[in-house]
Design a protein that fits this description.
The chain is mainly alpha-helical. Helix 1 packs across helix 4, helix 2 runs antiparallel to helix 4 and helix 4 packs across helix 6. It is globular, with a radius of gyration of 18 Å. The N and C termini lie far apart (51 Å). The relative contact order is 0.10.
Length: 168
């Protein structure tokens, strides 16, 4: 239980206050930003074509890291009182918003490798990990303020999104 507790605290920097919490948090944030940058750069043929091998390796390494992180989050999730039960708690965690975002971000890679569906175009779902930046920086005052604005103005933002989609 002690190792599960340590892993849970390391993956949830808002719970701990050690140097390692901050290092892991900074690493994950940097990897998310680098993945977003890679997805954008891969759309530019003059950049992507000569560096295909690099982008493939970066994709593979990123998926491995995000997969390990996801599995560690699932494994240690029942340390959180909301997901206390060994099996049901983990299942409840796995259908939580952030866990689903993490899963959707890595799933296209595995579907392509194991099933053969060429869903690499769905790597765009990695951009959803951008939403995790709000959780990873949840202990920061400015991030809490942005989150509160999104919560209080949710209906207006949804309407704006629908209107934007309509106009597009």
């Amino acid at each position: 239980h002690a190792s599960k507790r340590k892993v849970h605290i390391l993956l949830h920097p808002e719970l701990g206050n050690s140097k390692w919490d901050k290092i892991i948090n900074a690493f994950i944030i940097s990897l998310i930003i680098l993945n977003i940058t890679a997805v954008i750069l891969e759309t530019v043929a003059s950049i992507h074509e000569p560096h295909k091998k690099f982008f493939r390796m970066f994709d593979l390494v990123s998926v491995i890291i995000f997969s390990v992180e996801y599995l560690l989050r699932v494994w240690s999730s029942n340390h959180d009182p909301r997901y206390r039960h060994s099996i049901h708690g983990r299942l409840r965690y796995m259908v939580s918003t952030y866990a689903l975002i993490d899963l959707v971000a890595i799933l296209p890679f595995y579907l392509h490798v194991f099933i053969g569906f060429d869903l690499r175009v769905l790597r765009i779902f990695r951009l959803l990990r951008f939403l995790r930046l709000f959780r990873l920086t949840a202990y920061m005052r400015s991030a809490r303020m942005v989150r509160d604005v999104f919560k209080t103005r949710a209906n207006e933002l949804k309407l704006s999104f629908v209107l934007i989609l309509f106009f597009i």
